[in-house]
Design brief:
Blueprint (H helix, E strand, L loop, with lengths): L10 E2 H8 L2 E3 L5 E2 L1 E2 L9 E4 L6 H6 L4 E5 L11 E5 L2 H12 L16 E2 L4 E2 L4 E2 L4 E2 L4 E2 L4 E2 L4 E2 L4 E2 L4 E2 L4 E2 L4 E2 L4 E2 L4 E4 L4 E4 L2 E4 L6 E3 L4 E2 L4 E3 L6 E3 L4 E2 L4 E2 L4 E2 L4 E2 L4 E2 L4 E2 L4 E2 L4 E2 L4 E2 L3 E3 L4 E2 L7 E3 L8 H11 L2 H11 L2
Parallel strand pairs: 4-5, 5-6, 6-7, 8-11, 9-12, 10-13, 11-14, 12-15, 13-16, 14-17, 15-18, 16-19, 17-20, 18-23, 19-24, 20-25, 23-26, 24-27, 25-28, 26-29, 27-30, 28-31, 29-32, 30-33, 31-34, 32-35, 33-36, 34-37, 36-38
Antiparallel strand pairs: 1-3, 2-7, 21-22
Length: 346
């Protein structure tokens, strides 16, 4: 829905360097109308490389220009213009924004005739709402918001300026989203958590009265779910990045600028600090705390609180199946082996 596309009015390498505050070398009059990978680039493409590992590919590329590290040694036979940067990937993203390549298929202020919008909803004139959306009572949508097809925004939801919901997103009642939030297709924000009470042989559902609060510049991946709080709110801090297929339980708190990869499960009332990195398919049990600046590697089970920053792992790395089967059998005898060794120690 928000795919990159060529711009109708190309910009020269020299103009682009001026807009980004960067230096360039080579032909500054070359036109730039799109960005691409080195292998698919043409004479109007801008690319980037992180290090000299890709220099040969750059030499072979047909690109007009490339953003490269400032300290890189460039080959003499290079035909493309180069833009010098201390962080090429970051400045490549800046160019995408400058050229307006990442934008919706909706005109600003357009509302599809099939959208159902409550009379009490407050929606900016610059908001764009696609087909078959449902927007509830007292909803507040800020400036330049884009709502994709089939989204459901329930009563009393607030969404900040410049946020984007892709198709088929559900935002449940009372949730609050900050500015420049991006929510990918199929995500559900604010559903009830897994709160149950066992009574006389059956599970009783616990109504969840809290909300979900998302800070500014949060990104939520496709089919990720964020449960509302039972009594207190579920809180996702500023700049948090959530991959696809993540489950976040009720009352969870995630600190600013933490990034969480796909398939992670976080049980209710867990508190994760700032600037953490949680790798794919990790599982975090409920009611524990993780300190700031913690990295959790893939498939790790976090079963107790982490009080100090660092890198934490659990699980068995991959090995040849024949060896793994033998080790699995031996694992069952570790306690017996330990007791035997303790008996023979001097």
């Amino acid at each position: 829905m928000f795919a990159s596309r060529p711009v109708s009015d190309p910009i020269s390498v020299a103009e682009l360097a001026k807009l980004t505050g960067l230096q360039y070398r080579g032909d500054g009059q070359r036109p730039i109308s799109k960005v691409s990978s080195l292998s698919l680039a043409d004479a109007t493409s801008l690319c980037f490389i992180r290090n000299d590992q890709y220099l040969e590919a750059l030499v072979q590329s047909q690109c007009a220009a490339c953003i490269v590290p400032e300290a890189i040694d460039l080959p003499e036979k290079l035909s493309a213009a180069v833009v010098l940067s201390d962080n090429p990937h970051r400045d490549f993203l800046r160019v995408i924004e400058i050229l307006g390549l990442y934008r919706g298929n909706l005109e600003p202020g357009s509302v599809h005739s099939s959208a159902i919008i409550a009379d009490s909803a407050s929606i900016s004139d610059s908001a764009s709402i696609a087909a078959h959306c449902v927007i509830g009572e007292r909803v507040k949508l800020g400036e330049n918001i884009q709502i994709g097809a089939g989204c459901v925004i329930e009563d009393d939801v607030e969404i900040g300026d410049h946020s984007k919901l892709m198709s088929n997103v559900t935002i449940c009642f009372g949730s609050k989203l900050g500015r420049k939030v991006i929510v990918q297709p199929g995500a559900v924000i604010g559903g009830d958590g897994f709160g149950l009470v066992f009574e006389q042989g059956e599970w009783l559902h616990v109504p969840h009265l809290g909300n979900v609060l998302l800070g500014d510049r949060v990104e939520v991946g496709a089919n990720t779910t964020i449960d509302r709080g039972a009594l207190d709110d579920t809180v996702i801090g500023t700049g948090v990045k959530l991959d696809n297929l993540i489950q976040i339980g009720h009352n969870v708190q995630i600190g600013d600028y933490t990034a969480i990869a796909g398939g992670v499960s976080i049980a209710g009332s867990a508190v994760i600090g700032q600037n953490c990195k949680i790798s794919g398919e990790a599982a975090i049990v409920g009611h524990i705390r993780i300190a700031d600046n913690v990295t959790v590697t893939a498939k790790t089970l976090v079963s107790h609180s982490i009080e100090q920053s660092g890198v934490y792992s659990s699980g068995t790395p991959m090995m040849e199946n024949r060896l793994w089967r033998r080790n699995a059998v031996r694992f069952k005898t570790l306690d017996q082996l330990h007791r035997t060794v303790k008996k023979i120690e001097p």
